[in-house]
C-alpha cells in the first residue's frame, strides 16, 4: 500500500537537484525518512523498504534482469547493495 506522503516527497526529490543531492548522501533509509520529516513529510525507513519492494514487484522481467546485473534503472532514486558481513 502506497504512502501518499512518501510518494509526494519522492516526486519533490526528483524535481529538486539540491534535495536530490541531500537524499543521495543519506547513509540509510531512516536518514531519508528524517530528511523527509525536515520537509514536513511523515514516513519511516520501513515505509521506504515497502515502497522499494512494491516497485520491484512491478518491474518487467527484463528490468529485473538488468537490476540483477547492476544496471541503474531510470526513475529509481536509490540503488540497493548487498553487504556480506
Structure description:
- It is a single chain.
- The radius of gyration is 13 Å and the shape is globular.
- The chain is 60% helix and 0% strand.
- With 85 residues, it is mostly helical.
Low-pLDDT ranges = none
The percent range for helix content is 55-70%
Q: What is the count of helical runs?
A: 5
Order of helices and strands: HHHHH
Looking at the structure, what is the overall shape? globular
Indicate the radius of gyration in whole angstroms: 13 Å
Task: Sketch the major β-sheet.
Answer: none
- Terminal Cα span: 32 Å
User: Kindly state the mean pLDDT as a whole number?
Assistant: 85
Beta content? under 5%
* β-strand number: 0
- Coarse structural class: mainly alpha
List the helices and strands and how they pair.
Elements: H1 4-15, H2 17-24, H3 29-38, H4 45-57, H5 61-68
Amino acid at each position: 500500500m502506497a504512502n501518499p506522503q512518501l510518494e509526494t516527497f519522492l516526486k519533490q526529490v526528483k524535481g529538486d537537484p539540491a534535495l536530490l543531492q541531500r537524499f543521495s548522501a543519506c547513509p540509510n533509509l531512516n536518514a531519508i525518512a528524517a530528511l523527509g520529516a525536515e520537509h514536513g513529510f511523515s514516513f519511516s525507513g520501513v515505509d521506504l523498504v515497502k515502497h522499494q519492494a512494491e516497485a520491484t514487484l512491478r518491474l518487467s522481467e527484463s528490468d529485473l534482469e538488468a537490476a540483477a546485473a547492476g544496471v541503474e534503472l531510470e526513475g529509481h532514486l536509490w540503488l540497493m547493495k548487498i553487504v556480506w558481513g
